Amino acid sequence: MEADAIDRHAESRCTRRVERAHSGFVDPVTGRNRVAWEAASRKHVREYGELLEQARNGSALLASELDLLRPVLGTAPDVVHLQSGHGLDDIALVAAGARTVLGVDFSEVAATAAQRRADELGVACRYVVAALPGAPLRDGCADLVYTGKGALIWLPDLRAWAEDVARLLRPEGYLFVHEAHPAVPLWTWDEDEPRIRPDRGYFARSHVNDTFPGGGAVEWQASLGEVITAVISAGLRVQHVAEYAEPFWRPDDVAAAAWRGQLPNSYSLLAQRL
Fold this sequence. Notes:
- The protein has 274 residues and is of the alpha/beta class.
- The protein is built from 8 helices and 10 strands.
- Strand 5 (142-148), helix 7 and strand 6 form a beta-alpha-beta unit.
């Protein structure tokens, strides 16, 4: 489906199973990253049954997320989840009170698997395949834009992303981000004690991911101050920022000392469109 058609029919929450809105031009870095994530997202297909059980029996939302989102979710919001991945967060958002969730991701493999899970569980989630920023959705279609958990590192222009978020939000709507801390690329995975990688810097523009699942993809870096400034510049009022020692994701076979409470590994941000 063309992007303008999705705009016209956004009122119906994109009720076709998985809408496709690939733009005519994708820059080379985004193109390579998409290839890497299409390959990585096949894990969501191989582990479909396991993820289905997780979605059915538990919540993918962290306690810190639920604490901040509970007042918003209590209003039964329409949610847009930018860079929605495997979609387990979307099912959890509906379970916690969201009326609908519309996920946008540039991996067709991930979006298709997420749609299948949502359909099987009878959950009000729909998916659009598209690169960001420039979500092919109508203005003011969301009460809450939810994102994070490995999302912002794929966006080279956070100001353009934040402006797109503001466009999607209805007046008094919310942006919620729960994301890896910008300092995380510096931490080694040594298990004896925390160390800083000598090949990376906090203020670098980008680095190449050398770990699963995004191995070989280019991650864009931004300081926490740059993230907050982008949100403020888009006309949103920041209401809450918190940093956490706990990472949002850990490989099963790694017990890095950097995750034991001494260093920041994730953060949350809540902002509102006035």
